[in-house]
Write a structure and sequence with these properties.
Blueprint: H1 4-16, E1 22-28, E2 31-37, H2 53-62, E3 65-72, H3 82-91, E4 94-98, E5 105-108
Parallel strand pairs: 3-4
Antiparallel strand pairs: 1-2, 1-3, 4-5
The protein binds zinc ion (ZN).
Residues 71, 73, 81, 84 line the site of zinc ion.
Length: 115
């Protein structure tokens, strides 16, 4: 049951494909849940993501704690880009990367990144 959010994150990535999906993982009543967000990047959405701040505020209001950020790489490259790493460090939350093609998830922690 603990892994249910991963199914939701992968499903959302598939829906957004070929654009990048993005979402937030929040804990509510000790259960991790995936909250899909709108990608409002002004750049080409197949290669970048920006979480809609309104979605972020909504999730923040409805969960006990935000514990992670998810986005997808539709090209099936499960490697965090330099800007992903920068964002991870700046936001200081665990980052998850989802592939809508292979259903795989990669993870990186802010303290694994050299500033
Ligand atoms: Zn990325």
């Amino acid at each position: 049951m603990n892994y249910l959010w991963k199914q939701d994150a992968i499903e959302h990535a598939k829906q957004c494909d070929p654009e990048e999906s993005c979402g937030i993982i929040g804990i509510k009543n000790n259960i991790k849940k995936y909250y899909p967000c709108k990608n409002i990047s002004n750049e080409f959405k197949a290669e970048s993501f920006v979480i809609n701040p309104l979605d972020w505020a909504d999730v923040e209001d409805s969960v006990d704690e935000i514990v992670g950020i998810v986005h997808s790489h539709p090209q099936d490259i499960l490697e965090f880009s330099e800007s992903d790493k920068y964002s991870c460090k700046a936001i200081d939350l665990t980052f998850y990367l989802v592939s809508p093609k292979s259903d795989k998830i990669a993870v990186i922690q802010p303290d694994e990144i050299d500033a």
